[in-house]
Amino acid sequence: MTHKVLDETTESKSAGQRTPLLGLTLDMLRDLVANEGLPRFAAAQIADWLYKKQVTDIDSMTNLSKEARSRLNEKYIVGRQMPLARFVSSDGTCKYLFHGAGGHAVEAVMIPDRDRATLCVSSQAGCRMNCSFCMTGRQGYHGNLTATAIINQVLSIPETADLTNIVFMGMGEPMDNIDAVLQAIEILTAPWGLAWSPKRITVSSIGKLDGLRRLIDETKVHIAISVHSPYSSERFSLMPVEKAYPLLSVIKFLKSYDFAHQRRLSVEYIMWKGINDDRLHASALARILKPIEGVRVNLIRFHAIPDSDLTPCSQSTMEAFRDRLNDLGITATIRASRGEDIMAACGMLAGKKDQTNI
User: Fold this and answer.
1) Which one-letter DSSP state was computed for residue 152?
2) Averaged confidence pLDDT in the chain
3) Residues 73 and 114 in one domain
4) What are the CA-CA distances from residue 132 to residues 136, 192, 348 (Å)?
5) Residue 341 in this model has a pLDDT that exceeds 70
6) Are residues 123 and 59 part of one domain?
């Protein structure tokens, strides 16, 4: 493992109270230029500099007049911030530490895999969901990330140009910060923004239905739902959110959407020894998911965290569980574990610069 602490940009150090332009949609930029007395077409020019050319300062926006740039500089900054630190795993996975919210840092993880480079981004500092198996949830909630902070994770790493996929599976529950997440997705997918296909983006959720409904109705991104047990009482012991958003209610809601053709629906299922890894659990999970056409299951090895009695099950047990689901007509795969040696694997993100303190 290698670790490097990185310097912040000069702009971020001298920003003061100026407002970031990064993270604003085209409509927001149109309102901004109107308020500043700039021509309407300046909004598209600024968006082009932010998201196509990816400049880091307003003075680089050379097709704006000097007067316009001077006026913008009085109140605004681009808002890009370099990572605070970088950790490199023995398997090539890179974890980046960024300014977050409430004085707490957040992490983004870049996972290279042959011709793919996937960035796992955070949407909150900490998390309200309090899942017992997740280090992020254990630290509590410290604040929502702005769209600026989310997009900054994408644009401020060395691998930005190589990214092929983005997953909202980092710190926080995306549906608990749905406005900023939707704003970031608009920037990622709009022609005036980064112009990504929504099929390159996956958003994970524990099943918070109000935000999930908006995500599905307002975007075309792929969806991943954290399940981890087909039994309500057992899921509640692992995920307190089961009380507010029971799994069966989430499944009933998802049945009304077309996941066979329009987008992909995945179920995330972390496996623990002696808890949710037997044949009965596989059969119950298949029975619950059967009505949703096109659903697939990602089986995830548990990564041990401090002060937890939960333990991972064996590879052979995971394979038997996978095979049972496939036999019952549910497509299932085992997700490869990446970045465990730098605390970057699923459930291990904690937003700490000093990894020796974890």
Assistant:
1) H
2) 90
3) no
4) 10, 41, 12
5) no
6) no
* Full domain range(s) for residue 284: 89-357
Looking at residue 138, what is its pLDDT?
79
Task: Check residue 234 and give its pLDDT.
Answer: 97
146, 180 contact by CB (below 8 A): yes
**Buried b / exposed e along 69-92 (16+ C-beta atoms within 10 A):** eebbeeebbbbbbbbbbbbbbebe
- The first and second tokens of residue 187, run together, are 């920037």
φ and ψ at residue 182, rounded to 5 degrees: -65, -40
Residue 352 or 202, more confident? 202
Q: What is the pTM of this model?
A: 0.91
Same domain, 281 and 238: yes
Catalytic residues: 107, 346
The domain tally of the chain equals 2
pLDDT level of residue 14 (50, 70, 90 thresholds): very low
> Tokens 């530490």 sit at which residue?
97
Domain-embedded: residue 293: yes
Q: Report residue 335: phi and psi, to 5°.
A: -75, 135
- Does residue 303 have a pLDDT over 90? no
User: Which is nearest to 271 in space by CA: 241, 302, 236?
Assistant: 302
Closest CA to 171 of 101, 224, 236: 101
Question: Residue 327 is which amino acid?
Answer: D
The average pLDDT across 287-315 equals 91
- 134-159 tens-digit pLDDT: 888 778 899 999 999 999 999 999 99
Q: What percentage of the chain has pLDDT greater than the value 70?
A: 90
Q: Is the pLDDT of residue 11 over 80?
A: no
- Please return the burial class of 197, using the count of CB atoms within 10 Å of its CB with bins 0-12, 13-18 and 19+: exposed
Q: What is the DSSP string of 218-255?
A: H---EEEEE-S-SSHHHHHHH-GGGTTS-HHHHHHHHT
For residues 66 and 129, state if they share a domain.
Answer: no
Question: At a CB cut-off of 8 Å and minimum separation 6, what does 310 contact?
Answer: 132, 133, 272, 275, 302, 304
